[in-house]
Amino acid sequence: EGGALPVLRLAAGEGRPGLAERLSWAIADLRFRPRRAPVLGPEALAGAVYVNLSHRNLDDPRLIAALAPARARLAHVHDDIPLRRPDFAVRGLPEAFARMFAHLARGGFALTTNSRDSAARIAATAAARGWALPPARPMPLPLPPALHGLVQRVCPARPFFVAAGLFTARKNLGTVIEAMRRLNACCAVDLVLVGAPGADAVAALGGRTGPAWLRRAEGLSDAALRRLLGAASALLAPSLEEGFDYPAQEALALGVPVLASDIPVHREYLGGYARLLPAEARCAALAGYARALSA
Fold first, then answer.
1. Torsion sign across C-alpha atoms 3, 8, 11, 17
2. Could you tell me the pTM of the whole model?
3. 12 contact partners, CB below 8 Å, separation of at least 6
4. Are 237 and 259 in contact (CB under 8 A)?
5. How far apart are the C-alpha atoms of 111 and 105, rounded to whole Å?
6. Across the beta sheet with 110-113, what order do the strands follow?
7. Nearest alpha-carbon partner for 8 in 229, 192, 155
8. CB atoms < 10 A from the CB of 58, how many?
9. How confident is the model over 117-131, as pLDDT tens digits?
10. Which residue has better confidence, 153 or 287?
11. How much is the CA Rg of the chain, to the nearest whole Å?
């Protein structure tokens, strides 16, 4: 709307349920629920095992206090990027992460994380700040079943690349956009952004409209993402910082070529499978690799 980037919308039934549809399900479901749902007190947690996979509320001291009766507490900490690179974080997030790690240290939590690199960085950050955290055990995240196994490759009439994720500053979108501009000076190639662009992504695009070769896909189901990647020349993953990088893992699991930044977590998981470029690679280098893959 109002000159926003063009959006690729799926046919009915191919995307995830919209808000209205999910809300209608929730309203219908209310008929089968008691009017007054029971509220569990701290005594109900005695002997319980608490698992948090999302960071949610771990910065709130009330949650930590309420978990005191639990027999065991486990938190999956995705990374410590907001603490090491506050320039990549939204306002207030570094402070929330600091509270979260302090609570995890005092609350007797066991920790898991996405990668060996994240585990080492979390340990270093904790030591520097005086937090007595236990070692975080690396535990890679599972991929959806629809994104396992080699995908049937399709050659579209006009080649395109895919970049996926929540496009914040650390995703290095500006480098991708500039590389695609250079590539389109000699070749007709599109870029499909799968995910939500942040405010800094709008700046990288030079406005809300973007060039004609830029598209955005939204509401993709896992099956639809599988088909989209099957037709893409490659997935572009030039992040400056990552704790795991789900999109790159998904593309490799499907047998789709990946151009990624040469950062520690990419070397850990993608080394030998993806083509790695220096994280601060010049746009011309990225465009050259992209041109070879799109030929």
1. negative
2. 0.80
3. none
4. yes
5. 10
6. 49-52, 72-77, 110-113, 136-138
7. 192
8. 21
9. 999 999 999 999 999
10. 153
11. 22
